[in-house]
Design goal:
alpha/beta; 329 residues; globular; disordered N terminus
Length: 329
């Protein structure tokens, strides 16, 4: 695997750039868009509101449940290797209609809270550090055995299914599987293709990671854009950012991924309030996703919520993708 924290920060900063584009009426003709493949008009504005990191902590799990049950979140993905995975898996099993994928996990970024591979460190030694855990970060020169990587990806999927979770899509924690070079991404694509599962990739990522477009090919599925709130957003602008972004969505399929959690002792021990994606960040995301303001922005903006489950039907050639009534509120 390759990559650097600097390039990843540059990439995350770029995600907000695509959301300031105004909604354009009368999109030019061309090959069928993803929206059209899903059965919608070309200029329809479609949105997935996605919660990452489910299974990370009890605080994150409870916040995720709240966001699904009383908020606007309509999709999410679960971290299988984490200690709190069984709790959210039980919730998922009890709510089979939920749109839940797997947040395939190869890192544990906080030195004080660690987890390791489902297969155990001895089975996949190139994926772990000297203590047998996933690394805090992947160094640029880290050499990973691709066979071990594929085996661990398959093991995480198998464990999820063993716990009653049938994933609707695949993404990865910190986007390492998408953003660590073509060989690593090809492993993810091969497993996903075999299982007929879509993978989180946005066309707005192609500039920074051009191999994604090449690997997907002309018929591959990529969202028009997948974005998250910029790290420089101030607390008083948190909800307004979501309001504006939703109302200003361009035509096509957008995913906004969020990180919810309760600002409590558990979450502060894992990620102090001062950190990006820390306790106060996650509380602000939860507050936004359960706010009347963001709910009203969806209505005022004439935005249609869809799910990864609909998108996955394209890979299985199933009819009725646009008639999934669980996706629309």
């Amino acid at each position: 695997m390759s990559g650097s924290s600097h390039s990843r920060r540059d990439f995350l900063a770029s995600l907000a750039a695509s959301v300031v584009l105004p909604h354009v009426v009368g999109v030019r003709a061309g090959p069928p868009t993803l929206a059209e493949r899903l059965g919608y008009a070309r200029d329809t504005r479609l949105l997935i509101l996605h919660a990452d990191d489910l299974g990370l902590l009890h605080s994150v799990n409870v916040a995720g449940m709240t966001a699904f049950q009383t908020g606007v979140i309509n999709s999410g993905s679960i971290m299988v290797p984490c200690p709190w995975f069984p709790e959210f898996a039980d919730f998922a099993k009890s709510n089979p209609a939920l749109d839940l994928g797997l947040h395939l996990t190869l890192t544990c970024e906080r030195p004080s809270y660690r987890w390791g591979p489902v297969l155990g460190p001895s089975a996949v030694p190139s994926l772990v550090d000297a203590d047998g855990f996933f690394p805090v970060a992947w160094p640029v020169d880290r050499q990973v055995n691709l066979g071990e990587l594929e085996a661990e990806i398959r093991a995480q999927i198998a464990r999820a299914r063993h716990f009653g979770v049938e994933p609707t899509h695949l993404d990865s924690h910190e986007h390492y599987l998408q953003q660590s070079g073509r060989p690593v991404f090809d492993v993810l694509l091969r497993v996903a293709g075999e299982m007929r599962l879509p993978v989180r990739v946005g066309r707005n990522w192609f500039l920074h990671y051009p191999y994604l477009e090449t690997a997907l090919g002309p018929n591959g599925i990529a969202l028009d854009r997948t974005i998250t709130i910029p790290t420089e957003t101030t607390p008083d602008q948190w909800i307004p950012w979501y309001q504006y972004t939703i109302r200003a969505l361009p035509a096509g399929v957008t995913e906004i991924f969020v990180h919810v959690g309760y600002d409590d002792g558990e979450l502060r021990a894992y990620a102090p309030a001062r950190l990006n994606y820390g306790a106060t960040w996650r509380q602000r995301d939860l507050d936004a996703m359960t706010s009347a303001e963001v709910h009203d922005a969806l209505t005022a903006g004439n935005v249609k919520l869809i799910t990864w489950r609909e998108i996955g039907r394209l890979l299985r050639n199933e009819p009725g993708a646009s008639r999934d009534t669980t996706a629309h509120r």
